[in-house]
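Q: I'm writing up a methods section and want to include an example of the input and output format. Could you take the sequence below and give the corresponding predicted structure tokens, formatted cleanly so I can copy it straight into the document?
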Amino acid sequence: MTAHPTDPARLRFGVNYVPSEGWLYSWLDFSADAARRDFEDIAELGMDHVRVFPVWPWIQPNRGLIRRRGIEDLLELIDTAAEFGLSVAVDLLQGHLSSFDFLPSWVLTWHQRSLFTDRAVRDGLAAYVTEVARAVAERPNVFALTLGNEVDNLWPANPVTAEESGRWAAELLAAARAAAPRLLALHSLYDAAWYRPDHPFLPQDAVELGDLTTVHSWVFNGVSAIDGPLGPATVSHADYLVELAAASATDPARPVWLQEVGAPQPDVPPADAPAFVRRTAEQVLANPSLWGLTWWCSHDLARSLADFPEREYELGLFTVDHKRKPVAEELAAVIREPRRRAADRPALLCDVDLRTQPGRRAEVAPGSPFHAEWVRLRASGPLAVVPSARAGDRAYLAARGVATVLTPA
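A: Here is the clean output for your methods example:
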């Protein structure tokens, strides 16, 4: 089991771990036996890794207190995953999960201060990142640390500018690397960072600050409204987002991890979900920039838990009583199949460089003319995206596997 996997020829397959008992609230009464049953489900699908979510305020309830018991529960979860041959990526700042924000009291109410700009909060976060990173790095099956799950969703409740958000992420990534130098250190953002012109978290930071780029593909962002649950825009969205990320990086060999992708209802009805899995996977798995695919999520959410958005309850590959769902069967079949990465692809010329022109993000968002043209051409086979500034760079095109560059109609 490799702690710092970098082999570009090997695709990774995993799942974001949502416990079958009690969702993430299960950290408050952790049971290794319950986790063991869940990991058995996951391993039987052929997965090689899980992404796990310790909840920040339950480990650091006070800026000066980091609970050792909380860290020990996390280490026991990691050891339990190892029993089933599963590598582990640890998300640090939860932060935002399934429509809820989990923040400690020392940043709220009378203590209200921005997570991203307040110096005392940043110092407390750095201490938390350092201690958790140092502890989990001792486990050989841990391979990555992500600052948090879609930390950009914590804005605008925590006001921040684009410059400040980049400094915040760079500072915490430096703390993670210092504490755990053998692990991948990653910065994770929801796709508003790629599509919304005024968003203060930038594509530039996504493709430059972490050790690889992560993207989260959710078709409830409006793309499913374009052509339905199995339309070409919907099933190609994950591949499109991976391509935008690859095209925005200065390094043509920088990998992109599809860290979240799922089949949310009602955008993808249960009857269409297996076909959605199949068609989405067939497109994105051919992408030579793809590092791996991590499905959201492992297990459904119990209906007894109140106030979640309706789509959150049935996103799992398994029911809460461990029954394998049709989406799980389809994903397991995909994992077993041999595949080839696309080579000598055509590319669509993009006039927008997201790394240097974030104010133009709407021009490549789902439903834009550029997106529509990419979807139309993608129907004929794998299709890259190349920024116009690099269209004449032969070495760059060769490194991206681009044979010809097409101009939008």
